[in-house]
Amino acid sequence: MIIGTALHLRAEPGKCIECSRCTEQCTASLEVQSMVLSGSMDDAECVLCSGCVDVCPKDAIRFSFRAGFK
Question: What pLDDT does residue 1 have?
Answer without folding.
Answer: 44
